[in-house]
Design the sequence.
């Protein structure tokens, strides 16, 4: 009965029936693509499994220096050294990371990055690893995360208390200015996952109502008004300002047409479960059983979302890939229309900022098998990589063209991902598509050094310039 109701709802919402067949893009030669859009490093996909050489001994160079990936040829630059760079009050060192794949740590001009750490602090570095704004000069802000402006490389936005601020980098500090104070809320936050919109004018925010429900809303920077708002039935048990994932919210993202894409904390077919799009009148089902996803436009300007979609994520859907479990690109307004992006992939994260002018999605892979090859050498469960235990695309960072026409393999992340969640590379592509940033613990193949703030967490940030 439930399946029948869901199917009926989708026919009404999308005006399509589930008998529509997914589309598979025809392969094209890379030489046929626009030269300006091709990556300047990496290798086209050969369909073969590649084990990174010197897995047990390789260590990267010092901060600001680069190495050439020995398999795929991209230059990888190290931007941090968490084992020595910063020392906390108790003598420990915070782990450094770029945070998550679905919002870019890189500014509009591909010259600076926002870098977070295991103690919750933020700092700004340039693309050579030099400090621009140290943690001591960063403004106070609510939990959640700051987001870069879409055109001014010195500007980012952040929440503090009830107010939305513009932060402008001046010298080695940040000048904060209140853009708007939301007096109707007890506090606001820019929660997990959301980046600034593709048009550069909209932010996804959450506000805590007096009754502790939340307004999840889209804010227009130019109009200084809410363009969309959904009020949750779930409540925040504490202050929203200290929670990156408040109440029933897990992730919040904006679609290419500036609608709210809400991933709730629980899977299921209920109203506040799974992934839903708020169209200002109702919550539309994208997924009931959630997985990683990102949003953007396809080459024709249609709003799309990238995920491993199938009947296991939403009743009636058919995955567009031959195996039936690949990553596909699915039209947001015609959910049965999909193109296979990548098939038979390991566990993954996706990052997409694009459209026809920037048609590449960055996908990074990880594995948490125990025992397995993605553990530190000194871990009892560590197994040396071999043809018997290394997966196709494992530990890699790739670019996938949004129409499904090609894959470029950039580098191995060399991170021992099975050591913990934050050890997953979570590669993020810049808004311009010129750079990809990822996090890795490759500097310590034999295990983290002593005096890390979080034991067994010794992460650093790395940069690949692809155009």
Sequence:
């Amino acid at each position: 009965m439930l399946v029948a109701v869901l199917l009926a709802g989708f026919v009404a919402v999308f005006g399509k029936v589930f008998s529509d067949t997914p589309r598979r893009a025809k392969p094209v030669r890379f030489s046929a693509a626009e030269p300006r859009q091709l990556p300047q490093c990496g290798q086209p996909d050969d369909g073969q499994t590649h084990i990174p050489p010197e897995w047990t001994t390789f260590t990267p160079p010092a901060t600001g220096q680069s190495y050439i990936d020995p398999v795929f040829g991209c230059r990888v630059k190290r931007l941090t050294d968490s084992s020595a760079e910063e020392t906390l009050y108790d003598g420990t060192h915070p782990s450094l990371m770029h945070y998550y794949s679905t919002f870019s740590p890189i500014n509009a001009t591909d010259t600076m990055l926002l870098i977070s750490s295991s103690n919750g602090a933020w700092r700004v570095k340039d693309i050579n690893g030099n400090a621009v704004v140290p943690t001591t000069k960063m403004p106070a802000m609510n939990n959640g995360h700051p987001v870069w402006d879409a055109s001014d490389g010195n500007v980012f936005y952040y929440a503090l208390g009830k107010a939305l601020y513009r932060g402008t980098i001046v010298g080695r500090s940040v000048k904060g200015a209140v853009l708007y104070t939301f007096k109707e809320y007890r506090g606001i936050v820019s929660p997990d996952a959301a980046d600034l919109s593709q048009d550069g004018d909209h932010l996804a925010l959450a506000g805590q109502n007096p009754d502790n429900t939340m307004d999840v809303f889209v804010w227009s920077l130019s109009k200084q008004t809410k363009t969309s708002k959904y009020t949750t039935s779930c409540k925040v048990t504490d202050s929203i300002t200290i929670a990156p994932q408040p109440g029933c919210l897990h992730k919040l993202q904006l679609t290419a047409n500036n609608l709210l894409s809400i991933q709730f904390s629980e899977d299921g077919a209920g109203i506040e479960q799974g992934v839903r799009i708020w169209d200002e009148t109702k919550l539309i089902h994208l997924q009931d059983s959630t997985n990683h996803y990102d949003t953007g436009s396809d080459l024709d300007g249609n709003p799309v979302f990238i995920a491993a979609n199938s009947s296991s994520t939403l009743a009636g859907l058919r995955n567009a890939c031959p195996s039936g479990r690949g990553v596909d690109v699915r039209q947001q307004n015609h959910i049965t229309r999909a193109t296979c992006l990548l098939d038979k992939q390991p566990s993954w994260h996706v990052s997409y900022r694009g459209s026809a002018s920037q048609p590449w999605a960055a996908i990074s892979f990880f594995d948490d098998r125990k025992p397995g090859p993605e553990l530190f050498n000194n871990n009892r469960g560590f197994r040396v990589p071999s043809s018997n235990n290394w997966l196709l695309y494992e530990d890699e960072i790739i670019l996938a063209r949004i129409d499904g026409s090609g894959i470029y393999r950039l580098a191995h992340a060399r991170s021992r991902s099975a050591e913990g969640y934050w050890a997953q590379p979570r590669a993020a592509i810049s808004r311009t598509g010129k750079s990809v940033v990822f996090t890795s613990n490759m500097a310590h193949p034999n295990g983290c050094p002593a005096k890390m703030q979080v034991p067994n967490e010794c992460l650093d940030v790395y940069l690949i310039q692809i155009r």
About this structure: The chain has one helix and 30 strands.
